Amino acid sequence: MAPIEYGKRDEGKGPETYRSQSLLDTIFKATGLENFKGSAVFVDLMSGPGGIALNLQKKAPQHSYAVLDNDKDQLKKIGEQEPVRKILADVRCLSVIVEDGSIDVATVRYGLKDIPKNQQPIALSGINYALKPGGVLVIADMVSPEGAREWNIMQHSRKQQFSGRNIKEEGECYIPTEAEWLKMLREAGFEPEIFDHYKSLVTTTDWVKGKQITDDQRMQMDAFILSAPENIKKEFNIRQEGQDVKIDYPVIIIKAVKKEAKSCLPNEGVLYETK
Ligand SMILES: C[S@@+](CC[C@H](N)C(=O)[O-])C[C@H]1O[C@@H](n2cnc3c(N)ncnc32)[C@H](O)[C@@H]1O
User: Fold this and answer.
1) So what's the pLDDT on residue 210?
2) In a 10 Å sphere around its CB, with 0-12 CB exposed, 13-18 middle and 19+ buried, how is residue 170 labelled?
3) How far is the CA of 267 from the centre of ligand 1 (A)?
4) pTM to 2 decimals?
5) Which residue out of 13, 55, 69 has the highest number of ligand 1 atoms within 8 Å of its CB and is therefore the one to mutate?
6) 128 SS3 class
7) Are 93 and 267 in contact (CB under 8 A)?
8) What is the CATH number of domain 6-144+170-200+251-258?
């Protein structure tokens, strides 16, 4: 099975969260770009088609904007006329791509949870390296409720495997709990704070419309989601409305300030670019 071909996705038709202005506004607030003195160097990591950078650039055009993704088809979705630098690279080898302490603000939305558990600290270590002292990392990502982590990971992994992820070769996604997010960030040299919470309201047909899975696979996902234990159904507000199966995913927005420079963990992943 081929890896997930993110470039084939149609984010404009997929889950609403990718178009949510309120989530973008919260991310913008958390970055501090509005009141940043001077011109900041900003990079959106695992950027996909650049929704965050393009939105923030309009709000605060005085800064310099870059996006980084390891899927060239995702980056191609960003028009050449857009005022953002595109970097084709693996987030797990940031320390060989960018200079030490060269970034003021970084964001990563719905990205880190796709990196296997043992490699998430590697990605954070590279981000710590790339940020200036006092630099800011804003994470907007899924979070597992305590007691529902295994189910949350299982359902997300199942959908990703339908999308083409080979977990034997790429490893499995991992959706930390709030406490795990904070611990991992502290261990990577950050001072994290929970900036906000948000719910991503998904109807499983959104995944079909967004070209993440086929309609047959959606029916299998529906069966799996609807067979969840009662406590899980309550936690994720799982419900069926007519033909639609709906689920509300908890999302966390974390603002993490680089507190100390940690030595880099060994890189993982594919190298596309050098500094
Ligand atoms: C779920 S999408 C989120 C896209 C974007 N952050 C957003 O919120 O619209 C995950 C993105 O991460 C990218 N990605 C996955 N693994 C990566 C890696 N190791 N390094 C860089 N990008 C990666 C994928 O190509 C994809 O565009």
Assistant:
1) 94
2) middle
3) 17
4) 0.95
5) 69
6) helix
7) yes
8) 3.40.50.150
Please tell me the residue having the least CA distance from ligand 1 atom 20: 90
| Residue 11 CA, closest ligand 1 atom number | 9
Phi, psi of 245 (to 5 degrees): -105, 125
Which residues, judged by CB distance below 6 Å to any ligand atom, belong to the binding site of ligand 1?
A: 6, 11, 18, 46-48, 51, 69-71, 74, 90-92, 109-111, 114, 269
Sign of the CA dihedral running 190, 195, 201, 206: negative
Q: Report CA(119)–ligand 1 centroid distance (Å).
A: 15
> 257: which 2 tokens?
């300030």
What is the tens place of the pLDDT at every residue in 181-194? 999 999 999 999 99
Measured in Å, residue 189 CA sits from the centre of ligand 1 at: 23
Task: Output the DSSP codes for 65-121.
Answer: EEEEES-HHHHHTS-TTSSEEEEE--GGGGGGTS-TT-EEEEEEES-GGGS-GGGHH
Query: Which atom in ligand 1 lies closest to the alpha carbon of residue 91?
Result: 20
Please name the residues in contact with 168: beta carbons below 8 A apart, sequence gap of 6 or more. Answer: none
Range 238-261 average pLDDT = 97
- Distance of CA 30 from the midpoint of ligand 1 (Å): 20
Q: DSSP secondary-structure letter at 213?
A: S
Contacts of 241 (CB under 8 A, 6+ apart): none
Distance CA 169, CA 240 (A): 35
4 contacts: CB under 8 Å, gap ≥ 6: 160, 163, 164, 165
* Secondary structure (3-state) at 193: strand
Sign of the four-CA dihedral 257, 262, 265, 267: positive
